[in-house]
Amino acid sequence: MSDDVWTVGRLLTWTTEWLTGKGSEAPRLEAEVLLAHVRGCQRIALYTAFDTPVAEAERGRFRELVKRRGEGEPVAYLVGSREFFSLPFRVTPAVLVPRPETEGLVIRVLDLCRPQAGPRIVDVGTGSGAIAITLAKHLPKASITATDVSSAALAVARDNAARQGVAERIEFLECDLLDHPQAAGPWDVIVSNPPYVREDEFESLPRDVRLHEPKAALVSGPTGVEIIERLAALAAARLVPGGWLLCEIGPAAAAEAVLARQTGLTAEPTILDFAGLPRIVQARRR
Ligand SMILES: C[S@@+](CC[C@H](N)C(=O)[O-])C[C@H]1O[C@@H](n2cnc3c(N)ncnc32)[C@H](O)[C@@H]1O
Is the CB of residue 150 below 6 angstroms from any atom belonging to ligand 1? Predict the structure, then answer.
């Protein structure tokens, strides 16, 4: 094969170098995900096609995506999906891209709920629906509700629920936290990955996140714990006695303090993520 033919292998090598120059932290992986998307194949299929020439039309579509990636658009938005808990989720710029750290929150809810007969669970701020839908898939007897203030996010979540065959299992509600007649509870578990970035932290977020992910999904307010504070007060009233509030957090101290001072709740030990960072604060209703 002559050097001037754009094969799969040559495109990947060139793009990896170009994305490295643009500051990408995973340039090879990103190049592969984008090329596989354009070719409509699995990433693994690229490995047996290194010497295959890529047609001009495909190269054009690939170039456009690579250019947008170079300008900071997250790969998940470019290809329209992201895997979470080994399930494919459709994502659009209306929803936060589900993060691997959030899988820990799902694991915690599964551990708590598997022994229960028919746990009632609400996912507050469902976004793409990643938490609620994964729980519905793994807890066939649970009754699950998911809320969000964003109607655009809820449309994505409903679509994901339908794709995963659990649309009938989840009640989606458009409201502020639990401010809906059907979200009154009582709940066995209130789970949430809420916005928890302080307003003054926003400018220091990575460019890709700051410019492309929905700000309302990230920023809570001046202290970063406004949403958790309101959720803790609701949990004290709407959980069954012994029921659990579980929230993903950024820095732990402020969120732990919120739960510790909430009348009616008993704070439980914070759970660390795989990197050893505090990631899930938890409390039970007395
Ligand atoms: C950090 S994202 C989490 C999305 C998803 N649960 C996940 O873990 O990938 C927070 C979500 O909360 C929603 N949200 C923000 N403020 C809210 C509020 N007051 N009530 C309900 N949802 C809210 C946002 O629209 C966004 O979808």
Answer: yes
